[in-house]
Design brief:
The complex is a heterodimer of chains A (422) and B (177). With 422 residues, chain A is α+β, with helices and mostly antiparallel strands. In chain A, 13% of the residues lie in helices and 32% in strands. Chain A has a 16-stranded antiparallel beta sheet, with no helix packed on it. In chain A, strands 17, 18, 19, 20, 21, 22 and 23 form a seven-stranded antiparallel beta sheet that branches. Chain A is elongated, with a radius of gyration of 35 Å. Chain B has 177 residues and is an alpha+beta fold. In chain B, strands 1, 2, 3, 4, 5, 6 and 7 form a seven-stranded antiparallel beta sheet that branches. In chain B, a hairpin with a 5-residue loop joins strand 5 and strand 6. In chain B, helix 3 runs antiparallel to helix 4. The longest helix of chain B is centred in the last third of the chain and has 24 residues. The chains are: A alpha+beta (422), B alpha+beta (177).
Amino acid sequence: MYDFEPVEFDFDGDGIVDATAMPLDLDGDGYEDGTAVALDSDGDGVTDLVNVDLDGDGYTDVTALDQEGDGIIDMVVADLDGDGIEDVAAMDTDHNGVMDNFAAEVDVDGDGIVDQLVRANDYDQDGVVDSAHVYGDTDGDGQFDTASQIVTEDGVTTATTRYDFDGDQQIDFMEEEVIADADGDGNADFYSVQVDTDGDQQYDGGEAYANNPETNSLELIAAEGLYDVEYEVPQMPNFDPEAADPEAVAGDPASSMENWEFQEATNRCTLYSQKFVIEELTGEEVDIEDFADTAEENGWFTEEGGATALNMNKMLDYHGIDNEMSFHGQIDDIEQCLNEGGKVIVSVDSGEIWEGESDNAFAPVDGADHAVQVIGIDRTDPENPMVILNDSGHPDGCGELVPLDVFEDAWADGDHQMILCH
Amino acid sequence: MSKLSIRETVQHINTHDFVLHCNMPLGYVPGLPILKIIHDELCLQVPFLKYKVTGQPDQTLVYPIRYTVTMTWPEKKMIGFSNLSYDPAFAQVDFSKAIGFFRHDAVKHMKKAEYRAMRDELLDQYDKVAAALLEGAEYTQEDEAHMRRLMQIIMEPSLYPLYQALDQDFYGKYLAE
């Protein structure tokens, strides 16, 4: 056990104690962990400097100073990461005993390079930081590329962050977040975010959330700009077996339509298309969640991005379905496969299927972004042949009817990719 | 060696065997390429991004460039693929969120066919630059000014910062104010 009596030093022999060393037992185990040394550096009989070695390694970790000599500590600096350089500082700028100004250098990723500089102020001296500035080096190149200002007032915290992605000292992106706790219960009542995506200092999109007392969770109450583009689900006609001449229809669309399901707001179109085919050809019901798990585990699909063109038939292979995938197919290939009792999956440009060609609403470049099952081709009206789809991406996509020429254009955007299944 | 022009190469790049094996999800399309010199060789870097047609006029959503494929020119030897979501320089980009709208102001008056024709004209200008660099073909200041003008009309402003981050020289030559 250790004797924890303080040791006093009178370096100049004037009878006045210049320093007092006090061993510290921070964890209460009866053994010394570190040491605090209080110094009277100017010999006026008042302690004005305290050095604390928290871990007993012989180096000072925290220093407290009374710069005014009034007996009140007005500055504390600390070396929290033990690299010999102070990285945190707190100051009492008005010498009233309350620290009101703070600064920190933070090495977030521990690579020895400072990634964040933090400055904060407690203007009203209530012990709560009112304003903070945070500068970040997100790409580790030694240059700060983000600057955030965080202000808290009356329970409302506003954080504005500006990003300079390319280091040209120009703002490329700006974001403002507001979080409010009006009733002071520690839970947010309101949260909003606004973004300026083109760096013109004008917010062009945003969302707002408010607390739902019934669920005690934040729920979206408003959105505007980029996040408020109303997606108009266009009405699509559906195949009616009663209205079609069976002799003029390739495939068995009426039967295939029984397997259709809506994929909701997911990226699972390639999975649903394969599921439809597997269920039709095997008669077995496929659980879409298990299906998605298997596809994801094998790296053939992600919930975030969907599937790649080359992975559109991987679940067919997994379930032992005889299939052949190719590009540059012809409509005759599809029709022949359907007439032989086969099933067909294609990739298409969904915008052209759902919206058609429009001079005011189009994309700069065409490309396939969607997979559908072709379940039939209806030539009941030879002048207006229709392709019949099981389209999981459209809420009315069961037996969706698309004019052949529109289908051809949408299919061409994916270089006529097709998977013929038998 | 294929005789395809830069425009034709870009338009058919999605089914190039190398690109098919890059595992880009469905929906990514080639943007305007970047001409660059790598180890004294002329190269074409093709960015890939997504668009989402919403059906609303001038509100086709533009998403950030997420992938690039680089090839030598004119040999078309594939030399690189990059997923920018793993590039620290793009750490702050949220690739799941749209960054702008199409049609942007400079092309709002254009119908689809007119826009596509101008985009094709711009892509044809790339071949002129390549011919000048590779064969010493004539390329005047007027040619460069014309390409710069087309580029600034065709390219969505929301993509400028990404092009700048991808290639400062290309950005400085064709897009910077």
